[in-house]
Design goal:
Distance between the termini: 30 Å
Radius of gyration: 23 Å
Strand content: 5-15%
Bound molecules: nicotinamide-adenine-dinucleotide
Largest sheet: 8 strands, mixed
Number of strands: 15
Shape: globular
Number of helices: 17
Strand order of the largest sheet: 9-8-7-10-11-14-13-12
Helix content: 40-55%
């Protein structure tokens, strides 16, 4: 058992402020951490969860449902800035990140401080067309003259980040490969008890939940297209099939495409499905999956949603430029093309619709994910001086901890494990208490 004094550290989190996240925050607090938090999506906060965290003073929380992008980044800045700096500065010792925005802010701030120290250059928000990155640069530009070493101090004191999702993990590996990652990182997503459960079973539950709360549409008999057949795509495709949809998958990867075909899905291009589809969901973590010209070819009232991390899978810019928008209710809009008079229904403005239109995954699957997060934070803290987790490198949790997370959740489902006998254990060369699989095993 970990005593409350085990963990005397400052933790900043950027992760959907839901009721399940509230329990993660309370866990970190109970372990002794001083916690500040923001959401990692403008629509994903459950206001009652944020309010409960604020009321109980479990964390300083900066999150509400329906933030503007400007508010979102101010919340991130506030969550990462302690109002009572110590001798190491005003930053966190560790981060819980989901999608990598908080990590990105530190790295962009660090880069800007280097340029400022060299020749007084300040970031130029007009140097980018990306609306969100403009805001990031504007914040750094504003804070730089006030405190020109803020982000260097943060980077120095950081013991590490634990990253929740596939997209954030991609960003971390890219930074590590480029030699730019400033602190150690634990990739929580690729714990088996995260990606093969949250991404898969979580989305299998929360995709239809989001669709029904947003539209109450009859799913049976409808033609559904799922773009991407990774962990999230698999959960989504199975959910649509189970609901009675005629389900088609799109993929770029021959292995995933073959898997989908062998599970009974038709695998086609999105272009070929445009005139007939009733609903389409992106799950790729890639950009430019559904462009406005494609949506122009869809049937009237076709539903378009994204469950991947960022809002660039669906060409929202194109829709805003070309279409008339009718807001049906919060996070549900019809975009009408003026030349045809036909329109499509877009969920959560192209942001992850299971958190925008519903409440994300159920608690049981999030308990698996957040047990991994807690173990990752404890690992980073315990090993902060040992050199086990080096700056600039990305790690996954050891298999034995992954198995422990699963073990902790078996009783709740009434699972009875079979135990290896001594002779079986020596025959297959696996210890009776695990790990039961090599790291290369894919489940
Ligand atoms: N909304 C949620 O609750 C939730 C939960 C977990 C993960 N995510 C996010 O969902 C996204 C997917 O995560 P994942 O774990 O399934 O990743 P993954 O890498 O397992 O799957 C993505 C799949 O998309 C395919 N793909 C890429 N480009 C494509 C294209 N142009 N057309 C068709 N297919 C394409 C890839 O080949 C891959 O198989 C990420 O952004 C992740 O962060 C969201």
């Amino acid at each position: 058992m970990v005593s409350p004094t085990f963990f005397p550290t400052q933790i900043a989190g950027s992760l959907h402020m839901t009721i399940q996240t509230a329990v993660l925050i309370e866990t970190l607090k109970k372990l002794g951490a001083d916690v500040r938090w923001c959401s990692c999506n403008i629509f994903s906060t459950q206001d009652h969860a944020a309010a409960a965290i604020a009321r109980d003073e479990s964390a300083a929380v900066f999150a509400w449902k329906g933030e503007t992008l400007e508010e979102y980044w101010e919340c991130t800045l506030n969550a990462i800035t302690w109002t009572n700096p110590d001798k190491f500065g005003d930053g966190p010792d560790m981060i819980v990140d989901d999608g990598g925005d908080m990590t990105m802010l530190i790295h962009e701030g660090f880069k800007a401080e280097n340029a400022y120290a060299k020749d007084g250059t300040v970031p130029d928000p007009n140097s980018t067309d990306n609306a969100e990155f403009k805001i990031v640069l504007a914040i750094i530009k504003r804070t730089l003259p006030i405190q020109a070493d803020k982000w260097h101090k943060v980077a120095k004191r950081m013991m590490g980040v634990s990253e929740e999702t596939t997209t954030g993990v991609h960003r971390l590996y890219a930074m590590s490969t480029a030699g730019e990652l400033l602190f150690p990182a634990i990739n929580v997503n690729d714990s088996v008890t995260k990606s093969k459960f949250d991404n898969l079973y979580g989305c299998k539950h929360s995709l239809p939940d989001g669709l029904c709360r947003a539209t109450d549409v009859m799913l049976a008999g409808k033609r559904a297209v799922i773009c991407g057949y990774g962990d999230v795509g698999k959960g989504c495709a199975f959910a649509m099939k189970a609901a009675g949809c005629i389900t088609t998958v799109t993929e770029i990867d021959p292995i995933c495409a073959l898997q989908a075909a062998m599970e009974g899905f038709s695998v086609k291009t999105l272009e070929s499905q445009l005139p007939t589809l009733d609903l389409v969901i992106t799950t790729t973590g890639n950009k430019d999956i559904i462009m406005s010209e494609m949506m122009h070819k869809m049937r009237d009232n076709a539903i378009v949603g994204n469950i991947g991390h960022f809002d660039n899978e669906v060409d929202m810019d194109g829709l805003f430029k070309k279409c008339k928008r009718i807001n049906i209710k919060p996070q549900v809009d019809k975009f009408i093309f003026p030349d045809t008079g036909k329109g499509i229904i877009v969920l959560a403005e192209g942001r992850l619709m299971n958190l925008g239109c519903a409440t994300g995954h159920p608690s049981f699957v999030m308990s698996n994910s957040f047990t991994n997060q807690t173990l990752a934070q404890l690992e980073l803290w315990k090993e902060r001086k040992s050199g086990k987790y080096a700056r600039g490198k990305v790690y996954t949790l050891p298999k034995i901890l992954d198995e422990k997370v699963a073990h902790l959740h078996l009783d709740a489902l009434g699972v009875t494990l079979t135990e290896l006998t001594d002779s079986q254990s020596s025959y297959v060369d696996i210890k009776k208490k695990g790990p039961y699989k090599p790291d290369s095993y894919r489940y």
